[in-house]
Design goal:
The complex is a heterodimer of chains A (about 240) and B (about 300). Chain A has ten helices and ten strands. Chain A is α/β, with parallel strands linked by helices. In chain A, helix 3 runs parallel beside helix 6. Chain A is globular and about 45 Å long. The N and C termini of chain A lie far apart (about 35 Å). The model of chain A has no long low-confidence stretch (mean pLDDT about 95). With about 300 residues, chain B is mostly helical. Chain B has a single domain, classed as ABC transporter involved in vitamin B12 uptake, BtuC (Orthogonal Bundle), CATH 1.10.3470. Chain B is built from eleven helices and two strands. Chain B has a two-stranded antiparallel ribbon. In chain B, a hairpin with a 2-residue loop joins strand 1 and strand 2. The model of chain B has no long low-confidence stretch (mean pLDDT about 90). Classes of the chains: A alpha/beta (about 240), B mainly alpha (about 300). At the A-B interface, helix 2, helix 3 and helix 6 of A face helix 6 and helix 7 of B.
Chain lengths: ~240, ~300
Amino acid sequence: MSVLEVQDVRARYGQIEALHGVSLNVEDGEVVVVLGANGAGKTTTLRAICGMVATTGTVNLHGTNIVGTDTADIVRMGVAHVPQGRGTFPELSVVDNLNVGAYVRKDKEISADIDKWFEIFPRLAERRTQLAGSLSGGEQQMLAVARAMMSRPKVLLLDEPSLGLAPLIIDDLFKQFASINAELGTTMLVVEQNANLALGIASRGYVIEAGEIVLSGTAEELRNDDGVRAAYLGV
Amino acid sequence: MSLFLQRMIEGLSNGAMYGVVAVALVIIFKATTLINFAQGGLAMFGAYMANVFAIEQGLPLIVGILLGAAVMAVVASGIERVLVRPFDPANHLPVVLITFGIAYILQAVAAWKFGTEFKSFPSPFPSGPNDHIEIAGARLRYERLGVVLVLMIMVGLVHLILNKTKIGLAFRAVSSNTESAKLVGVKTGRTLNFGWALAAMFGGVAGGLVAHFTQLDSGFMDKILIFSFAAATLGGLDSINGAVIGGLIIGLVESPVQPMVRDYVPGFHFLTSDLALLVAFLLILAVLLVKPAGLFGTTRVERV
């Protein structure tokens, strides 16, 4: 069953329509990638799912249409979003970033979860009392991911997680995504320009251009598509 | 020496009152990067409400001041919900103009309901002629020391609320990054509403303390508000501790520094206490020109 089903979604910023009827779906436990160039509508697609841009159409989450639902309530329904540019809280300490990540939770395992993410990202543990704004780009991205996972989401939306990071750090981060998906069964929708990496952890993908989905297929199909190879794989 | 000490404690207690109002300004500024010009009006109205509860209804003065502050918290919460939230938070001008309007409305309502004559207002601390301790010949009056004590309690309280409670965590998250706060499930409107209520409560308590020293009338907080702006600007508009220290510095500049300069520096005898407001304004200008982030404010540098 589709955990997330986006049907004919249009999104606009003021007078300008940025998405012209985007449809995609993500099955339970799947990693799906959306490839596209700058300005193609990748970020807007994720913002539309989270109710952060004026949207029409249907976004079904576990079969419930969430278009028009308040962002904070969508988070409560099990969606976590790591926005472009990290989306951490620069004036809060690392550990408070994780605490606030668990804002929607009421159980007693929050501090145990924090310890777990410190184990997964030891560099964050070393900096637990430091302000998030003082972390390096890679550390901030780790923190943003851990912060998002603190809400124990069913669906994780990742907006260009590789942007501006060193290759080694990116490799490491994508390995973590794969293991989060494998171990916790978290469903993921990743938008990326780095097709190689993204297709490496995804089972299926879509290509978005100028606000429309122009291609979809399995990771294998996309990797072998001449257009994708020319535009996103540099071969 | 004893005069200096006496003036100093006077300066510190005035500074503590500026500090409390400055903390109220900072709470709103941290969350919205807005200056709430209605803060003085809310504090003034809180003092009138304290007057109603304590003097007219006969409740203990402390209870009256706290009740007055609580009423203003409710009023501020209503103002935020009805008059502030509908506006785009990124567009500051309309909201700032609204806070100006609210300040004048509160003044008009106070003058209409409570009259325009000055009313004396008691201190919640012993304030008789003999209520003081004497150190080195200086009389440190309890009513002055008490104000400093209240400031310390209130700042401790606001730190507790912001750092140890869930709503405090949410408030800091909204202050740091509103969009990400939504993405962790924080209801930003409700959180800002809490900020307005908290700030108004601070202002209300300040009003109840200041009124004893100035007397009660619909404009008695105006001058205090200017000094508090100076305090908040000096300390850094987004720093609570900065607001407190800024308040104390402004208080000390007003007394003992200013009278000392007047009395002992040749050519400065014109610097009477009437010019204290001018000094405050010059300080605001100087800080904005030289160090816009203030003493303890954060200059936002973020890695991208």
